[in-house]
UniProtKB/TrEMBL annotation:
Residues 5-118 form the Response regulatory domain. The keyword Oxidoreductase does not apply. One of its GO terms (biological process) is phosphorelay signal transduction system. This is Response regulator receiver modulated CBS domain protein. The keyword Phosphoprotein applies. It comes from Desulfovibrio ferrophilus.
């Protein structure tokens, strides 16, 4: 299946670059244009959806939108407007925009809007999406092997956090867990910050004790220095010793109600998407939430 091609039009270079990179991680192919004039030239590259900033030098977003609609009436366009700029957004809708988002733009919401705009542009009868439609591609999800140490896992999670983007125009908080594989590539677990917090707690804290010991054990003196010493103790453990069990696995053709049922009854925040016996992606609570929001907004 070919990637969805997005034409991103914005006169701010940093925004274009960061957005293209993030959308690429989410499985989209992104064409960038720095102006309305350049965007019209890029239409020859056959984008599936256009994401267009309203305020640009030269040909602004509204003028660009009108010209796009003259040339490609069925090409869906999502407008990016300033926070609270309702008149501009309403004008864009009258001019043929599919929808609009106010800045700062949440990248997960933008992704959901792009998916919806594509169905709209194809004039498809709305169907319920499958997990494959909304998943994070596996190549965009950070993973390590089960023999890696806790220190290695911390470094990998810190790298993920350092790549999070929160600016006045864009928000992308990425994922907060690691997939754990064997050396042969079999998915065996997942590691989240909560797993690491749990690992710092020594087993004897949970051991049965006489009630008279409660006041002593939980006094400030008891806890003093324990956290630092426990972190030093676990840092060289293999992640296999502290990880959670692997996510539930569903086939790539699974519909969202079945996936939601599996997540709810299994008390899981993530589900692994499988195809041909291999994991190809992950869906999280966030992806399901934005699909719920999308259905409501289109009702």
């Amino acid at each position: 299946m070919s990637k969805i091609r997005i034409l991103m039009v914005d006169d701010e270079e940093r925004f274009r670059t960061i957005t293209a990179k993030i959308l690429g991680r989410k499985g989209f192919e992104t064409i960038v244009a720095e102006s309305g004039e350049r965007a019209l030239e890029k239409l020859s590259e056959s984008p599936d959806v256009v994401v267009l900033d309203v305020k640009m030098g030269g040909m602004d977003g509204h003028e660009t939108l009108r010209e796009i609609k003259k040339q490609h009436p069925d090409l869906p366009v999502i407008m990016l407007t300033g926070h609270g700029d309702v008149p501009s957004a309403e004008q864009a809708l009258k001019e043929g925009a599919y929808d609009y988002l106010a800045k700062p733009c949440d990248i997960d919401l933008l992704t959901a809007k792009i998916q919806d705009a594509l169905h709209f542009g194809q004039k498809a009868i709305r169907r319920e999406k499958t997990v494959k439609d909304i998943m994070i591609p596996i190549e965009s999800y950070t993973s390590i092997t089960e023999t890696s140490t806790v220190a290695d896992a911390i470094a990998a999670l810190q790298k993920v956090h350092s790549e999070m983007v929160v600016t006045d125009r864009l928000m992308d908080t990425r994922h907060r867990s690691l997939l754990i594989f064997t050396e042969s590539g079999e998915l065996v677990g997942i590691l989240s910050p909560n797993d690491l917090i749990q690992a710092t707690l020594p087993a004897y804290i949970f051991a049965p004790k006489p009630s008279m010991a409660d006041s002593l054990q939980y006094s400030p003196m008891f806890w003093q220095g324990m956290f630092t010493s426990r972190v030093h103790e676990i840092m060289n453990l293999e992640v296999a010793e502290v990880m959670s069990e692997k996510p539930l696995q569903v086939d790539s053709t699974t519909n969202l109600m079945e996936a939601a049922h599996a997540m709810s009854t299994g008390h899981r925040r993530r589900v692994a998407v499988m195809e041909g016996g291999k994991i190809i992606g992950v869906i999280r609570e966030q992806e399901v939430f934005y699909e719920i929001a999308s259905i409501i907004s289109n009702s």
